[in-house]
Design brief:
single chain; mainly alpha
Length: about 70
Amino acid sequence: QNIMPSLSEAQRKALELAIENNYYSFPRKTDLQKLAKAANVRVATFREHLRKAENKLMPAMSKKISNPEEF
């Protein structure tokens, strides 16, 4: 099941930029301010796009983890 099409273009770009720049690494290798600057948007705008993308993806990921045979 492909869940990426449910993301808006801005959400997809924010998520890709975060992943490419190791935002999800521990410890984080970047922060929202740097990502927003790279995306040429305000921090609040970038944060909103990224959070909306995460909120769309997490339920699907949770289902996949709980029921991998369904995918």
